[in-house]
Amino acid sequence: MLPAALYLALFIAYPFGMSIYLSLSDAQAGNQKWSYIGTANYSKVQSYDLLANDFVLGRFPSEAAARAFVSERPLLKVTTFPAPGGGHRATLTAPGRSIALLDMEKEEDATFAASTILQDTSWTVRQAGGKAEVVAHEKESAVTLGTFTTRKAVDLAATKLLVPAATRVDIHGTGVLQDPNFLLALKNTFKYTFGTEILKLLIGVPCALLLNRKFGGRRLLRGLVVIPWVIPIAISAQAWLWILDSTYSVINWCLVHWGVLTPQHIINFRGDKDLAMLSVIAVNVWRGFPFTTIIILAGLTAIPDEILERARLEGASAFQRFVHIISPMVRPILMVSLLFSVIFSFTDFNTIWIITKGGPFDQTQVLATYAYQLGVNAGYLGKGAATSLFMFPIMAVMVFFMLQFLRREA
Amino acid sequence: MAEVVLENVEKRFGDVRAVAGIDLTIRDKEFVILVGPSGCGKTTTLRMIAGLEEVSGGDIKIAGRSVTHLPPRDRDIAMVFQSYALYPHMTVAKNMSFSLRLRGMPRDQVATRVRDVAAILGLSDHLDRKPRQLSGGQRQRVAVGAALCRQAGVLLFDEPLSNLDAKLRVHMRTELKRLHQSVQSTMVYVTHDQVEAMTMGDRIVIMNAGVICQVGTPLEVYDRPVSRFVAGFIGSPPMNFFEGELVPDGSGVALALPGDLRLSLPRPELASRAGRKVSFGIRPEHISVAQSGRPLSDLAWAAVASPARVPAVIEVVEPLGHRVVVTARGEAGTFQMETEIHAGVRQGDRVDLWFDMNRAYLFDGETEATL
Ligand SMILES: Nc1ncnc2c1ncn2[C@@H]1O[C@H](COP(=O)(O)OP(=O)(O)O)[C@@H](O)[C@H]1O
Ligand SMILES: [Mg+2]
What we know:
The complex is a heterodimer of chains A (410) and B (371). With 410 residues, chain A is of the alpha+beta class. Chain A folds into 2 domains: 129 residues, no CATH class; 232 residues, MetI-like fold (Orthogonal Bundle), CATH 1.10.3720.10. Chain A is built from 16 helices and 9 strands. The radius of gyration of chain B is 25 Å and the shape is elongated. Chain B contains 9 helices and 20 strands. Chain B has 2 domains: 230 residues, Rossmann fold, CATH 3.40.50; 125 residues, CATH 2.40.50.140. Chain B has 371 residues and is an alpha+beta fold. Chains A and B meet through helix 11 and helix 12 of A and strand 6 and helix 2 of B. The complex binds adenosine-5'-diphosphate and magnesium ion. The site of adenosine-5'-diphosphate has 11 residues of chain B, from strand 2 and helix 1.
């Protein structure tokens, strides 16, 4: 009992506890003293920007009426009045017309925002619910309606926009949750994980079914199929680096050779921001599908012959046997394999680090590589720890649901 | 109408001839048992009838139609496997109705059929359970239920009771027999247990080494075994065999056994065979006790039979209840007999035992055929 507890404490709890502590401190490479800063590494907001775009300036019964209004644009002027609830109200006025746009504390802010909407946006007419709407759209970037320090203030400000519009709150801060690169890495992690898992299943299931048939050389093939999984990624990645090389890629060579591509338009697998993610997924799938195959194969082998024979006798075709008997019987073990494989992919560092190092433009940056970049390369130990610890609750939730599924199946 | 006919059916696995050309006709609605020692080709025969195994030669007809090259599902058969082969992910009801649902039978009809069959088998309360929540006996019933649901012309059973405990086995034996009377299907039942064979079947097919030795009713195979193998296989405890020789005895013939034992045979027609080596067989139930100093109820029996006196020493006494199995050693060898528990035999006793020579069997020393 005691040795087990000691082991748990030393080898599991300590590193985990240490990273939690780091994530709660302002630890930074080169700093002498680390002090406790609470959850600031996770989330610390400095300001909220209220942004809005696509202002609906008016609704008209017919398109003609809407167009008439758009043609009145040169006549419109920005005027401000004291607002009923305090502050100032900016209004677009013309003879016989007045459109209340927004309320703001300061008069010049209100005037500025209203003028931007009047002058810098392009106005279009669109149909909505049987009416014609005039929409003011700012092409370059949304109109900033103010910067606030609390959530309450920004929410209140949003209610003071008096015309319908698409509003958005941009949060600025120093925590990882306010870091757009972190959010990108999180998104990439999901892309990477689910892309990998779906492909692994699509390749692994047919492979397992094939290897489960009786044919000469089956044992040899079963042995060969695990090769990608057993050779160290550091070695196989060298081959992949060549396959995906911008200049010497064998895929490019073939495509050029067959006349599909010209040498001027070869594919840059690792450098193209869309292809880079596909490339790392491909490498991870190549490396991981043998595991899926072998596990499913084990599941298939575990189905007693008599059960399949009974199904055959009861009139089930090969396809019906697959759907009604084989799939449900393999499903629990498939879920176990998926569970492991999701954990591996979600926390995978090696593949990406070797193939793209997270690039280009962070398009393949996942949580594991970003945590390393942030914590080790850039020296922000606290933030790096916080980034990697983010994986923990996400994984816990995924694992929980998968285990739940397994329990229901059993 | 589901008569099953096998014509010179053969199965080879590489060099192994698992079934070496058998002819058999199983009549419509008959309950036929295939029995024989392990590895004699029973399962292979059954699987060929089912279509799970291709025949290497010969022809199989079901209901007058050759099915030799038809897939299993077109043969109008259902089968109960030794391992039950239940689908572990389906409830009892789903297990039983799988074939019906595949055929696209309307839901309400399926439900009615399942309910009826479950009622027959006492499974009504378990329809929503998964197989793993059932006892061995219940699983066995589900397997039978699944086969019954299909209302196939022929039901095949491959040692369906061998995974049950002894008591349940006896119970299910009766159940299956009763079931046969109510379902009106032809049943072919494979077992290696001769007790099962004797108690259940209309007719018994005794197989050995890929061939059929004898086909007959339980009484026929018990009373008139065609060979030493059948005689030894049917009956429990098994028949005793002694190697001996036929010798002339007056106008008739007697049996000379090792240890100068001479038993006269009530078989004058064998006189011409004097001098041949034979096996002499007698069932344990046809030997009785005559112990000195006790009144013998068996003496009355000895009067109507043709008893031969054999001195022996009692070695082992195994009570089975009201009967005991006694192992005795005489000059001719060791043998077993069965008698009443009150006969009073004790280990170590020297007794005279009486062989009923009217019930004795003689088998040719070379061909082992019954003489
Ligand atoms: N698939 C197979 N491949 C090779 N030999 C087999 C196969 N199935 C059965 N046999 C052989 O055929 C013989 C008969 O087997 P089986 O019909 O299963 O016997 P039983 O059911 O009477 O015990 C055995 O010698 C067995 O080894
Ligand atoms: Mg068998």
